[in-house]
Here is the input.
Amino acid sequence: MRDLKHLIFFEKLLQEANNDLVKQAREEGRKALGYTCYFMPEVLLDIPGCFGVRLRAPRSGSPDMATYYMSNRTCHYGRALFERALEGGFNFLDANLATETCTVTCRFQEHLKQMDVIKNPDFFVEFTDVPFKKNENSMVHFRKQLQAHVLDPLKERFGVDTSDAALIAAIEEHNEVCRLISEIGAYRKLDNPPITGFEFHIIQLVTLTCPKYLILPYLRETAEELKTREPEPKSPYRCRVVLSGAENDDPDFTGLIESCGALVVADRYCYGSLPGREEIVVAEGQSPLDAIARHYLNTSYCPRFMPQQDMRSRKKYLADLVREYRADGLIVVSNKFCEYWSYERTMDALILPRDYNIPTCSIEKEYVNASTGQLRTRFQAFVESVEIKKLQEAK
Here is the structure.
């Protein structure tokens, strides 16, 4: 296929947290607000005068300094983030809006709060408590937490507008990003998509790590370009898969899967678009903050929700994605020492083949993909097993 016009630019943006668009927004006087989890509503961080940056540690090596503080038996992702902070890679941040969700990223953010790591005199850290259930009490509690630990501190410290009108403006901008990403992602449902999983992964990531108002013109152009982009006459892939699991901010991991012959057609993982790019609807008479709180709790399929009906709902959601995107199998991934996703991955590997007849490949990996040879062998074997299954069913 012809190269996408902005793909190299997007890839360059992902090489550093403090990328060119982040620098531009800060030069224009906007406040950079870091976060790590879907439960910190990115739309609240994109109110006028601010912009959200979902934190990553691209090109990480061995997190030796972070391991000293956090131990080597914690998720490499959290340690890689803290290592990058110790190196000075997050000094551009004016604040970090944390959530009491993932244990290791909480530890990382606690270190930011307790230690003089970020060399910015305005920098502060706030923690938001996120409920473990989705009932009415949880909605009310979450809304109050977002008011007390996000909107109020931003108004008090930076003087930004946190009115309903400001939230509505942020929602409208957020919803345009969601519409464009959903439009681009929908091409993956086609028999021979004009976009690869690797390319989509890059595009989705830049919407999380760059100021929305600056990345939107590039997204609009890319969405328009895909309307006329011609795929290869015959798909070079041997099967289609849904990629699910924990934090995944490395497009090269998706590229590795696709180099083994499996086209990634759906991204059901932390930092992915399913869920994550659903539009926020504000009902008549509803406050925008209430709509935001309810939206993020209701759309999340995070494994920290442990009631039986929620666990069953997550399995059905995966099975529905496999059907909707006409995938042949599922790859589910967890990072080593990831508490929630290790349990979820184990259950997915048991339940999806047994109850839904979906071939499933279960992978545990580090944040940095050092064992690419072993992973390649696993993925190649999985692709072959999917092909054999398809041949047997065709008889």
